[in-house]
């Protein structure tokens, strides 16, 4: 039975706070001791416990309140100390005396030539009380089962101490080299083709007035390059961390972040030891407790007078909610001299709206990152010789909407082409380099449901929840609305068309790349999707969209019937050329069955031209009249309509001219 007369020790209080398995970490570290005892108390109590933690430490890693069993080389036996005082000696062969003492305690420290242990008696949920050994070194803790009291010998303790020490050493060596060798703690090298983006570099300088700066944009907008260029010219301390998929673990994430702060030179190599020890303990305390330790070190360490800037790149790999919650706590309590910059392809799951309202957030998004014409001209000039003309640059910027990856991929293709003008005229999202980039860097990283939604809705020129529901055949409109909102947060080339964020469009090149992928991977679904869209728009009375999708679905009968119903409406709106273009898209067989539609369209088109040429201005309006006759390919549509009408008359036996 445990000694009931002894005072409650700090270790016992920790034991009760954190469950049946205590936290076997180095309690002589004053911060660890203070924080653990401060859980559930006020902040001042935590600070006051620091001196207490120092006072109760001795030469070993354990406090005086714990029994310490230490091997004496001089006496060739084990000496038992309780609260720093020698109480008893055990020779290895004296098992009876050893077991008698062991039955009276619930924890002790063990030091032997082979290693050191923290030993605890733990009650298991299913019954039974057993001894367990813990070995902590370099912030890493291992646990071993020892058995019942009657079977726990001094020789067995010695054996376990040696085993845990051997196991710990290679793991520590691997852990020490992991982050340094990965190269994740320094900004990546800048590309050869680099544009000095002074407006954005200055924006980052000014962003240090807020605790958090967020660079949020999809792949290929130059986030990492911008931050790397800024870090190279910033005079204060910059800590850099590039995340990867393995960092989606709270322990690894925060250990990596601490390593980045150590690496920047503003903090000592021992910075964050307390937080690391807590993170890597078998049963760590709450994240807020661990982060409090880290924040106190950030606040109290003497550092370079200039601020510390911590840059975390590729934050989109973080999906673990515990990391987001920890980051929110970290930012809410960040010292004034520390600033955080997050770069992400998606909006992180952080309280951005609250920080935005408080003025604690600076945002740099795709609209800010896109290349302006002057920047694009400088960038392309470094990649192409001879350089493009101003008009060619303007056309390419308009086509890519300033998307840097699109400009870069276009330039790579132009380096191998002699017919530049023809390429620029025909440049689309189906261009090979661009399509490969979209497939590898964007689509392949998305969940299947998101990828399918994008591919299916790419047939639409305008997206809202209702039409997306119709095209994807989703039972609930709510699901489509949530998907659109998710795509916008994920920066997936979705452009809002209204302030209410109900209507969107896709970036043109991205949409073309999606369409190309859809036709390649699922060609059989294309007419089905267009047919669904046509039916939706017909029900909504949006005739232009309904006819367009019916034609693309090869549902020519529906398209012709819709044209016959609406031809007069389009003529009254001045869109006779539009209806003529649709009529010419009908196959000859079907056009013959709708001769009235052909004749009416030709009449309206001719009437439009006559009215245009009679308007004030005389000859000056002839060009406008001819332009109204032109189809999408620039050809005059009236002769084609007349030819179809004559063919129809010949097949039906009518008069010939």
- Which residues form runs of ≥5 with pLDDT under 50? 1-65, 170-181, 617-630, 652-657
| CA radius of gyration | 37 Å
The helix content is 40-55%
Estimate what percentage of residues fall within beta strands: 5-15%
- Main β sheet profile: 7 strands, mixed
The tally of beta strands, per DSSP, is: 14
Number of helices: 30
Shape from CA axes? elongated
The strand order across the widest sheet is 3-2-1-4-5-6-7
Termini Cα gap = 119 Å
Pairing-aware structural class of the strands and helices? alpha/beta
Number of domains: 5
Task: Tell me, rounded to a whole number, the average pLDDT.
Answer: 78
Describe the protein.
By secondary structure, the chain is of the alpha/beta class. It has five domains: 10-176, no CATH class; 198-363, Rossmann fold; 373-423, no CATH class; 428-554, Orthogonal Bundle (Arc Repressor Mutant, subunit A); 556-657. It has 30 helices and 14 strands. The strands form three sheets. It has a seven-stranded mixed beta sheet with strand order 3-2-1-4-5-6-7. Strands 9-10-11-8-12 form a five-stranded parallel beta sheet, sandwiched between helices. A two-stranded antiparallel ribbon has the order 13-14. Helix 28 (595-613) runs antiparallel to helix 30 (637-651). Mean pLDDT is 78; it is low at 1-65, 170-181, 617-630 and 652-657.
Please sum up the structure shown.
The chain has 657 residues and is of the alpha/beta class. A seven-stranded mixed sheet has the order 3-2-1-4-5-6-7. It has a five-stranded parallel sheet with strand order 9-10-11-8-12, sandwiched between helices.
């Amino acid at each position: 039975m445990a000694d009931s007369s002894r005072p409650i020790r700090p270790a016992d209080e920790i034991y009760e706070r954190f469950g049946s398995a205590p936290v076997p970490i180095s309690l002589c570290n004053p911060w660890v001791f203070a924080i653990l005892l401060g859980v559930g108390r006020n902040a001042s109590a935590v600070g006051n416990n620091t001196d207490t933690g120092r006072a109760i430490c001795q030469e070993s890693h354990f406090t005086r309140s714990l029994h310490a069993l230490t091997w004496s080389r001089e006496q060739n036996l084990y000496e038992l100390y309780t609260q720093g005082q020698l109480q008893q000696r055990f020779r290895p062969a004296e098992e009876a005396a050893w077991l008698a003492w062991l039955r009276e305690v619930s924890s002790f420290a063990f030091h032997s030539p082979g290693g050191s242990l923290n030993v605890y008696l733990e009650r298991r949920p299913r019954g039974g009380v057993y001894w367990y050994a813990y070995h902590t070194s370099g912030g890493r803790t291992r646990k071993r089962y020892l058995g019942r009291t009657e079977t726990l010998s001094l020789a067995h303790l010695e054996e376990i101490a040696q085993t845990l020490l051997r196991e710990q050493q290679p793991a520590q060596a691997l852990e020490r080299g992991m982050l340094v060798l990965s190269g994740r703690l320094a900004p990546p090298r800048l590309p050869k083709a680099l544009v000095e983006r002074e407006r954005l570099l200055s924006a980052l300088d000014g962003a240090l007035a807020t605790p958090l700066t967020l660079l949020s944009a999809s792949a290929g907008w130059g986030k990492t390059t911008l931050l790397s260029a800024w870090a190279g010219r910033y005079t204060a301390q910059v800590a850099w961390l590039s995340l990867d998929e393995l960092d989606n673990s709270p322990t690894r994430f925060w250990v990596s972040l601490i390593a980045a702060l150590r690496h920047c030179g503003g903090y000592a190599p021992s910075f964050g030891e307390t937080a690391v020890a807590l993170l890597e303990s078998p049963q760590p305390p709450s994240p807020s407790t661990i982060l409090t330790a880290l924040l106190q070190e950030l606040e109290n360490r003497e550092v370079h007078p200039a601020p510390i800037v911590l840059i975390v790149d590729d934050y989109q790999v973080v999906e673990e909610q515990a990391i987001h919650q920890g980051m929110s706590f970290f930012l809410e309590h960040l010292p004034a001299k520390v600033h955080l910059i997050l770069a992400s392809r998606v909006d992180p799951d952080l309280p951005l709206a609250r920080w935005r309202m408080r003025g604690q957030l600076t945002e740099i998004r795709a609209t800010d990152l896109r290349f302006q014409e002057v920047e694009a001209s400088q960038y392309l000039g470094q990649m192409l010789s001879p350089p493009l003309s101003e008009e060619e640059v303007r056309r390419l910027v308009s086509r890519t909407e300033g998307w840097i990856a699109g400009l870069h991929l276009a330039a790579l293709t132009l380096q191998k082409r002699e017919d530049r003008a023809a390429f620029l005229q025909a440049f689309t999202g189906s261009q090979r380099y661009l399509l490969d980039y979209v497939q590898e860097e964007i689509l392949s990283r998305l969940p299947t449901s998101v990828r399918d939604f994008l591919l299916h809705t790419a047939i639409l020129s305008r997206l809202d929840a209702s039409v997306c529901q119709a095209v994807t055949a989703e039972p609930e409109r709510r699901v489509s609305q949530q998907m659109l909102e998710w795509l916008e947060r994920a920066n997936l080339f979705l452009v809002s068309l209204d302030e209410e964020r109900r209507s969107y469009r896709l970036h043109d090149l991205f949409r073309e790349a999606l369409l190309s992928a859809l036709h390649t991977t699922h060609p059989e679904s294309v007419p089905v999707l267009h047919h669904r869209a046509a039916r939706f728009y017909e029900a909504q009375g949006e005739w232009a969209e309904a006819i367009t999708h019916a034609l693309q679905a090869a549902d020519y009968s529906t398209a012709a019937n819709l044209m016959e119903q609406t031809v007069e409406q389009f003529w009254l709106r001045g869109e006779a050329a539009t209806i003529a273009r649709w009529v010419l898209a009908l196959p000859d067989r079907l056009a013959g069955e709708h001769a009235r539609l052909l004749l009416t369209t030709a009449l309206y088109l001719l009437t439009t031209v006559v009215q245009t040429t009679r308007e004030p201005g005389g000859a000056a309006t002839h060009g406008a009249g001819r332009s109204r006759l032109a189809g999408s390919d620039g050809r005059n549509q009236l002769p084609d309509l007349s030819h179809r009408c004559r063919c129809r008359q010949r097949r039906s036996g009518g008069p010939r001219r």
